[in-house]
Specification:
- This protein has helices at 2-15, 26-39, 114-119, and strands spanning 42-53, 58-69, 73-78, 82-86, 89-94, 99-104, 125-135, 138-147, 154-162, 168-175, 180-190, 208-211.
- The chain is globular, with a radius of gyration of 20 Å.
- It has one domain: outer membrane lipoprotein receptor (LolB), chain A, CATH 2.50.20.10.
- By secondary structure, the protein is of the alpha+beta class.
- It has a twelve-stranded mixed sheet with strand order 7-8-9-10-11-1-2-3-4-5-6-12.
- The N and C termini lie far apart (71 Å).
Length: 215
């Protein structure tokens, strides 16, 4: 049985099939993600975000689209909120409140953007290769990332990485309080031409505009 297993692993390696832990380490997977990100100038995808609130025992799901152009242009659009930045200004629009909040772009105070949690991971971390898993019909490497800095508010991240494109297709964050947020990406496009008009926002007529840029 041992000899059979070794033979299967050897054949899988020759054919380029993703296999279980031992074929590649967690840190090697993250390094390949970073290498992919360095070559990406623009990124577009649809996403599904699921939030599991441990204390209340409830689950909320939200769907939307995300567009990004380096270095700091992005647009996140869902049915509950639209957040847009041209790299200098950020517009946050909530149809429910009828408000648009305008601020200066500040990367140190921005919430996690999809491109950040898909490509950027804490430098101080413990990384563990978990397994190879099929996701949306494709082989993915599953890696656990545990930040050593507790001030991030995250106790663990689990990342599903496509072994062909080296893009993270699914990311799951567990907070220090036990809440779980999962992002599932699909219809991913990289290095396509995205007009700059996507990264500007004109407030709809009649909404309340709150501008914090000069305060």
């Amino acid at each position: 049985m041992v000899h059979v297993r070794r033979w299967v692993l050897m054949v899988a390696g020759v054919l380029g099939v993703s296999v279980a832990a031992g074929a590649i380490t967690g840190n090697e997977v993250l390094a390949k993600i970073r290498g992919t990100y360095d070559k990406v100038n623009s990124f577009q995808a649809a996403f599904e975000q699921t939030f599991e609130w441990k204390l209340a025992g409830t689950t909320q799901t939200m769907r939307g689209t995300f567009s990004m152009k380096k270095p700091n242009k992005f647009r996140i659009q869902t049915n509950v909120q639209t957040v847009v930045s041209n790299g200098r200004v950020v517009w946050s629009y909530s149809p429910a409140t009828g408000q648009v909040i305008i601020t200066n772009y500040d990367p140190t105070t921005m919430p996690l953007r999809p491109d950040n949690f898909l490509f950027v991971f804490p430098d101080e971390r413990r990384t563990t290769y978990v397994r190879s898993e099929r996701l949306s019909g494709e082989d993915h490497h599953v890696v656990d990332v545990t930040p050593r800095d507790s001030t991030l508010g995250i106790s663990k991240m689990r990342v599903w990485v496509d072994g062909r494109s080296w893009l993270a297709k699914k990311v799951q964050y567990t907070s220090v309080s036990g809440d779980v947020t999962t992002y599932l990406m699909n219809a991913i496009q990289t290095n396509t031409s995205i007009p700059d008009s996507v990264f500007t926002f004109t407030p709809p007529p009649g909404v309340d505009v709150i501008d914090f840029r000069n305060r």
